[in-house]
Amino acid sequence: MKRFLIILLLAVVMLSGCAPTGPTVRSDVDPDDPTVLSERGEHDRAAERWLELAQQAALSNPARAAEARLAAAEAWLAADQPNQALAVLDTLDRARLSPAQRIRLDLVQAEVALVNEDFATARWILDLPADQVPVSLQARFSRLQSALAARDPDSIDARLEQMRIALQDGTFAPALALDMLLEFPVSTIEQSLQQASANSDPMLLPWLELALVSREFLLDDAARAAGLAQWQTNHAELNWTAQSAEQAVQRWKASQPKPARIAVLLPGEGRLERAGQVLRDGLLSAWLAKPDTLRPELNFYYLEDRPDAAVGALFRAQADGVEAVIGPLDRQQIRSVLALPDGGLPMLLLNRPPEPTALLPAIIPSRSVSILALPPEEEAELAAVRALVEGHRRALVVAQGSDWGQRVSQRFIDTFELGGGRVLAQADYDNASFDHTAQLEVLLELDRSNRRIETLASVLNTELEAEPQLRTDADLIFLAAPEGDALQLMPQLRFLDADELSTYATSHAYSSRGSTDDLRGMEFPAAPWMIPSTESGQLRSRVQQRYPELNSASLSQLHALGRDAIELMPWLAMMKQDRQLYLAGHVGRLRLADGILFERDLPWARIDQGQIVLD
Fold it and tell me: What percentage of the chain's residues is helix, strand, coil (to nearest 5)?
């Protein structure tokens, strides 16, 4: 049977027209050309020859050696030797493979899983979003998905057929639809819904719609409640309530596997110690709010202020038998952790490495690492996009003269200009000073207007009653200012009559200290935690007396980050597979758009009468 399956899978690869060619060899001359050997059906000899070529190219051309090893694995698979194929794959360093090679390796692993009837593994691998598969491998990928769907007894097609039979013979129970379909990604359910609609299958349509609403809003209680209520209205004839559906969803969620013991790596000293304490308080608050049966054991490891401190703590945590890790928070320590081989332990890192663009390619293959951070640069990017959408095209930038200020302002400038906007000028201020009027007058060209007035008065030899005029070519001011600085800048801008220009910032400019009315009119992307009218903001108001640090906008968001971290842990693997699944978190709507970095979707807010309100 296995021999037949291997031949079938090999045919799938060959029919796709995308079979890898491996290293270039003069097959018309060399009788030992592995490509020729495979064409003759001598797959075992071809595999051995590929391995010889890989050995020869190991030092001089590592990329060619990797290609040869991948070809050898495929040849072993064709030779009915799946274990040999896996042994070859184990010799490859995924971090050193190109993106196309990584996908090719995954496809070989999926083929082996299908041969061994390990449908769960094959399904996990082939759940990869199709747009991430290189064009040269898409036909092969599609055919493997079809092969899986045809043979997997737990595929969505197989389960829908079981549901159809139950509906026909009267044994169907409504909760069965959710029990059978909720584990599938949103895109899979959507595709089945489209097929059922196209085939005019009224028997399955309402239950697929129910599954789609429940899965799409699985981690968003408010949106799910609204969606289920609408479903009940649309299908009142089925006599199944939104409340019953919600109970079924909650039962399914409670039945999903969750880490029983989690390690939390936090700074125990140094400049981040206070931040670690605030984050821990948020994490424990969310943990205490859970029912006893849903609380994992938390093991806290407090780190010294050294770049390699997290590595030792991670090894201790693994020895202690933890099943998942939250942290660390320090960027240098995260760099050290990412340099380790992927041990398969799910990890939610709470910051990004110092050079994310350099390090992230090395961890893309990892199915264990996720990164949730609150970088101000992302908010600057959102502010630039919002400005463009609102029709602003000519901006002025005010930035703190620090590394933080320059990073934030540069991200705004890059995004704004990429979208067709133009930054006319930038003023950098010294945060050690309180009076920034001189820099702002230059930015607004009031100094030029004053000089023109003085020149005209000199020419006329008389005093003139004239007011300096603001420049008229700008329609927006962006503040790259951390907490507290905006309390100085906004009144000074208002004093200079610049309050008619829209003023955008990041949420870091907000401060609840002092007179927040001085910030009136300032607009920025804000976490739901910071907006009093949201459910998350109301929770913040209730717990603020217990945690005085919530008066600080930056520390308060770290508290919220801790709350979201504990909520994410049970769902990391599912969110890696389903890029449309999101958590309605306190720090924003969180989604693993690329399988590694959490993307934050933030509502737009403004300061009105001293309060943050939704715009």
Answer: 55, 10, 30
